[in-house]
Amino acid sequence: MRLFKPRRWKRLTATLTAVVLLAAFVNGWNWLPTGSLTVQRVSSVAAALPVMAPLSGRVLFVSPHPDDETLAAGGILQDVMARGGQVYVVFLTSGDGFEWDARATIRDFTVSHADMLRLGLRRMNEARAAAQALGIPKDHLFFLGFPDQGLTAISLQNYLVPYTSSHTGVNRVPYAGTLAPGRPYTGQELDRQLAAVYDRVKPDTVLAPSVQDGHPDHRTAAYLASRLASQRGEKLYYYLVHGGLEWPLPKGRHDALPLAPPRPTSQGLTWSRYPVTDEQRARQVEAIKAYRSQLMVLGRFMWAFVRQNELLLPAPAEGSPIPPADLGK
């Protein structure tokens, strides 16, 4: 008696082939056709982007979560300091809403509010270690301690009434080492604290998440940072971390490849390549290693940012017309 009929063998073979080709596409295995196409597309899109002039002066990076600064701009921030500039990072949340991260850390499927608060403290310490690897001084870091996955609700529904995090069970900043411990989770308080950081740093340039980012915390941070920068006349550039399904491609670590955006243009503006040196890339790797809790769950995603360049998108100049292609979007 045959275990498999010929038709079943064909189905099984077709399924396995599809899985292997998909894996090649995602991981950039260029010894298979789909992987080769991924590598070729990434290389060609990146090559067509303009190379950005180096940043200098006082640069403030607005980071919704600990690790965004290292993934999106680990090389850029080092380059600013190498040119005599100063780098500051403000972490809006402490990353205390990623339950899979907590599960991996405590090795238990069930997590409590206390577990999530401990995760927030751990990620703040990881951020400090990552900043040290990048060469950013400790006193140039600002932790606000607002809730992960809560920034949108805080800015819209809870501007005046405190928001209670479903992950930690608290409605005010619970962490020591933050800018204003014990202050309520309201949009008004978030605006006040972020403005206080801008006042203290007096940045020449602000790096903020793109409004095209797929994570709601990032989109809300984009609006907050953009509004403040435009009010104060600071130069503004956008970065990207969550660029859509499977971005960035290929997954895993590919040091020799460039980083290409999911779309070369966004809102009528073109992304720019910011070259990264071997030394800067090596220090970025050490900074990524500092985020041990994240690497347990998102390792292949995080390593995909270690490339020949990073990406920035200039904010539109004040009063510039909306490109026709973006009307109605």
UniProtKB/TrEMBL annotation:
Output this protein's name: PIG-L family deacetylase
Recorded GO terms, molecular function?
hydrolase activity, acting on carbon-nitrogen (but not peptide) bonds, in linear amides
- What are the coiled-coil residue ranges? none
What domain of life does the native source organism fall in? Answer: Bacteria
* Transmembrane intervals: none
